[in-house]
Description:
This protein has 118 residues and is α/β, with parallel strands linked by helices.
Amino acid sequence: MSGLAGRDLLFGGLGADTLLGGAGEDILFYGTTVLDGNRAALDELSTFWSRKDKALTFNARTAQLIAGTGSVPTFTTTNIHDDTDVDIFTGGADRDWYFAKLTDPKDQFDTLAEDVRS
Ligand SMILES: [Ca+2]
Ligand SMILES: [Ca+2]
Ligand SMILES: [Ca+2]
């Protein structure tokens, strides 16, 4: 699964996935989320993550998503789930946000200026 230039949301889902963010600040998810199948919340998330307001820096956006915004559920392990398969993440250019498994067998990812959570 590949993103292009711009801020992408890449959902690995079940199974071992290879996610390529490409340029732009992307969010890469290792497994399933409560957002899956919730079109309205996904659209809201996509719109929020794409916002270019100066005050909404990468850190401000990630903090707001962890806290929850609008109808987008909090970005916590309650809502974002590991699928236990080993996923391969390449965020590409710009800072990216990974939801990855950090215990063996770990997901594999590049770590250039990335923000990795599990
Ligand atoms: Ca991208
Ligand atoms: Ca996966
Ligand atoms: Ca990227």
